[in-house]
């Protein structure tokens, strides 16, 4: 049995794994999991060469729960071996398939720089960037209530601080985070920063250094692949016109309302 990847491309970590595997010609079976099952979020990505297209039906969601004890995506199944967590999966794939050294360098100091960014990422970029999607699209969709503008402003201020640190501490005047070639750190960062863009918050506007870096990341993995992986994110605003499954809405609304407080 070959490599199976359980992914939902609405998820930033899932997109980074998908792009990494595809750009490195790693053969895998794409098991699409719909995080918001039975809502509009089941829209399938455009077909592309490389990975096998996702299987239809509920089995992938059920399968992901069996593969990952954490019952969430991304999840990997390689024969009898299973693995969860984005960074762990990226490192596993880079080592097993002996991907080009620039992704996770053998040089101990460059590797440490990648590790440093991946550790910093979670408490900074990832702590704020996804909230833009929840505030502008998902929470209003599931609760039926508009959010006060102060909520978005608070998140954007936190994200702005993180972006400033990203540019000054990690990117500096380099093409990529660790130098002249893309690494896992760049991929994880770029995919995360597309979440606000999909929600209508163009965080790259007025930041030319950040924009040029993003373009280099797109070129390094292939623009067609990069945008195909983000197709659902770019169309996320279409959700506002869709009827949401009542049971799903009833289940999620109380949870999401806590985020408003």
From TrEMBL:
It catalyses: RX + glutathione = an S-substituted glutathione + a halide anion + H(+). InterPro entries: Glutathione-S-Trfase_C-like, Glutathione-S-Trfase_C_sf, Glutathione_S-Trfase, Glutathione_S-Trfase_N, GST_C, GST_C_Theta, GST_Theta, Thioredoxin-like_sf. Its main location: cytoplasm. GO terms for biological process: glutathione metabolic process. GO terms for molecular function: glutathione transferase activity. Residues 107-248 form the GST C-terminal domain. Residues 46-65 are annotated as: Disordered. Pfam families: GST_C (PF00043), GST_N (PF02798). It is found in: Cytoplasm. Its EC number is 2.5.1.18. GO terms for cellular component: cytoplasm. Residues 1-101 form the GST N-terminal domain. Keywords: Cytoplasm, Transferase. Belongs to the GST superfamily. Theta family. PANTHER family: GLUTATHIONE S-TRANSFERASE THETA-1, PTHR43917. Homodimer. This is glutathione transferase. It comes from Eolophus roseicapilla.
